[in-house]
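TASK: fixed-backbone design
INPUT:
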């Protein structure tokens, strides 16, 4: 059985923000997502690249531990191939989303080879 090497967790959430406590909880959850390496792909939709299935399972446990008690929080784990098949109608990507891929080589433009 072949394991898919790269996986993505896509996390969707709606949290109540009608009270100061709700807004604070929202900010803390988003801060957690940012600090754990998630990238925002739309409002209240975040994703994170995982290196394998085990990493995705570990991430699932962390998210479930960190999520607020109130609100609606869901996630799905898909292969990187499935994630790459998403159609982005307007083709708008944040810089962070553009560079977070499973490519092992990153080319930085503007570098001068002469020293």
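OUTPUT:
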């Amino acid at each position: 059985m072949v394991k898919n090497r790269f996986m993505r967790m896509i996390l969707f959430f709606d949290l109540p923000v009608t009270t100061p406590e709700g807004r604070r909880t929202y900010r803390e959850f988003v801060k957690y997502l940012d600090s754990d390496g998630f990238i925002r792909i739309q409002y209240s939709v975040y994703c994170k690249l995982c290196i394998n299935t085990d990493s995705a399972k570990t991430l699932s446990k962390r998210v479930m531990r960190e999520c607020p008690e109130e609100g609606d929080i869901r996630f799905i784990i898909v292969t990187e191939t499935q994630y790459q098949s998403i159609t982005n109608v307007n083709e708008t990507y944040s810089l962070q989303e553009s560079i977070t891929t499973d490519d092992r080589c990153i080319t930085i433009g503007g570098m001068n080879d002469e020293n």
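COMMENT: The chain has a mean pLDDT of 83.
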